[in-house]
Design goal:
Keywords: Methyltransferase, Transferase. GO terms for molecular function: S-adenosylmethionine-dependent methyltransferase activity. The chain is 28% helix and 30% strand. It is of the alpha/beta class. The chain has one domain (22-197): 3-Layer(aba) Sandwich (Rossmann fold).
């Protein structure tokens, strides 16, 4: 059985590809590889979240949690150049690609590091956290990500989550309602829900 994209070192042969993609009327170039999530195009959920995202009205860094090869973090960084953006992923191959993609797209205000969720972030707090959680890792992992995100937000910070209805959006919304005082569905497209929680 091949390793999943949410493992540290996917045990699949490399087959790198570079392709172009438009997000919010900006052209991006992404290099991807086997063993990373959605290697052929930016997945619809991430695209929808990028298009819906508006930074909060507080100062502070933005986190792309489970960044993959970097499309969310890079797009957010390019559109919000006054913010420091950080991306984390457990998958080393994805993190290397994300840093390469940041360079080739001229996103100087974003950095990507290998970290299992918040493990290597030393208690850093964020104005916003965006995540397209690894549903295939299981509900327990996804709910842990939501819980840890709530603890890692600055006062007034926001958690943005994209989840498909058939992959657990109602369960995620219930969990968000337990953790946050205000949860809003800011966008709904093709079965994908974009939640903003604060």
């Amino acid at each position: 059985m091949t390793d999943q994209y949410f493992t540290k070192n996917p045990n699949v042969a490399s087959d790198r590809k570079t392709w172009s993609y438009t997000l919010n009327d900006r052209q991006y170039k992404f290099t991807t590889d086997n063993g990373v999530f959605s290697k052929n195009e930016v997945d619809f959920g991430s695209k929808t979240m990028i298009e819906a995202f508006i930074p909060p009205e507080i100062n502070g860094p933005i986190l792309d949690l489970g960044c993959g090869y970097g499309p969310v973090g890079i797009a957010v960084a390019k559109e919000n150049e006054d913010y420091e953006v950080l991306g984390v992923d457990v998958n080393l191959r994805a993190v290397e690609l994300a840093n390469e993609n940041a360079r080739q797209n001229g996103a100087g205000n974003v950095t990507f590091i290998e970290s299992d969720k918040f493990e290597k972030l030393d208690g850093k707090k964020f104005a916003a956290i965006l995540t397209n959680p690894p549903i295939r890792a299981g509900k327990k992992v996804v709910h842990e990500m939501l819980e840890e995100s709530q603890q890692a937000l600055l006062e007034g910070g926001e958690l943005w989550v994209v989840i498909q209805k058939k992959q657990g959006a109602p369960s995620a919304q219930k969990k968000l309602d337990e953790l946050f005082s205000a949860v809003e569905v800011v966008a709904k497209q093709k079965g994908y829900f974009i939640f903003k929680a604060k």
